[in-house]
């Protein structure tokens, strides 16, 4: 990218709990501003507690608010926009009718129109029996519940009328790019296509024949392009960013968190946000085995320039702590009291810090794991002396880190040449107990990034021409 010393790149991350935005000075590589907003978008799913859905209007309002709170004079200098977000999920809309552009104060913003909810990566509606009834993908990645194609198959088999209302689909971040650029057909990067299932990362093509043969609505599959490509230009001025600004195809959030934080090939990245991932980069030329082992906790996801990342992607990260806080908050309310959630986080973390060790053992897999969906959470070694808030918080944080470590142990990282661990994600940066547990278990030097890592990675990927 040509820079004149005043060019800024906007990076956005549409996460499961919050949206983040950073402004990166393309010439110096400095972050000049950043913002985040909680989305609070979760809605009841028609599938009951197994379903995990989010209100798209709520997410986009948080995004508009987050971006427009950046300084106006800086937004006017934005030359490119990079977008990342929560992978695997799917939402639906109608071509050319997915949003309307409105005035909000003196700014132009877009509002979703007649879209579905976003069915997220946390969605559990596809049982093992249901997944076993689907055609075998031709991909090195196993299919799991919460993956876009599995969710579309679920609608096809259980609510075919639902799909009749739509002719376009994508992840939430693909939707954002499609709306910003007014795309006729959504585009999807190989990062997000791989996260939907039924995608072959070697040929970079959907398993069209297999899908079509099972009656899958293949017209809903976005056009796939390489990560790092430009998807189009902003069709309107947005939050003060000028019309015509280039917008990159949406990227995966975990690839972007690695891109912003890992500087050496011998780095591993541990990201804890709503979910958690431990990942390192595979050497150039690495190609995964053609077919997956469903019991293997480490998967290989496409990165940039035909590289792969080995990743242990846990479904149990900050969401486990958030569930603990919700449980406490509900109990407190039932007892007739009221403590704000932010105060609960602070007090719980303070209590955990005062308890350095515990014999209490919490296996925290409230949400199962993709390689063992039926293994739920458990607590053991409970003694009367180990019931304080400090013991429980310490054991919970220890459990989250140990669970991830059991999926990708230090020994395997060392054998792969890892020498340093980079910690990222706001659940980690805001929780010292979690950081202490990371430092106890991993025998590497550890460096912490900032909580806008994926948004920063999305911006950095747009500075570099892939
Ligand atoms: N006040 C807080 N203090 C510490 N941790 C928090 C606080 N609020 C939320 N969290 C943690 O941060 C997680 C969400 O992180 P975030 O980076 O916003 O997620 P995402 O990138 O998935 O949108 C929550 O699941 C929770 O564990
Ligand atoms: O499952 C994977 C990768 O396979 C995930 O880790 C991937 O990064 C997803 O986007 C996350 O689960 C959601 O990200 P976040 O909102 O927790 O940051």
Please, could you describe this protein's structure?
A hairpin with a 3-residue loop joins strand 1 and strand 2. This protein folds into two domains: 8-249, 2-Layer Sandwich (Nucleotidyltransferase, domain 5); 262-451, ATPase, nucleotide binding domain (Nucleotidyltransferase, domain 5). The model has no long low-confidence stretch (mean pLDDT 96). The N and C termini lie close together (11 Å). Helix content is 32%, strand content 24%. The longest helix has 19 residues, at 389-407. The protein is an alpha/beta fold and 466 residues long. Helix 9 (253-261) crosses helix 16, helix 11 packs across helix 12 (389-407) and helix 12 crosses helix 15. The strands form eight sheets. Strands 1, 2, 3, 6, 16, 17 and 18 form a seven-stranded mixed sheet that branches. The chain has a six-stranded mixed sheet with strand order 21-22-20-19-25-26. Strands 4-5-10 form a three-stranded antiparallel sheet. It binds adenosine-5'-diphosphate and D-altro-hept-2-ulose 7-phosphate.
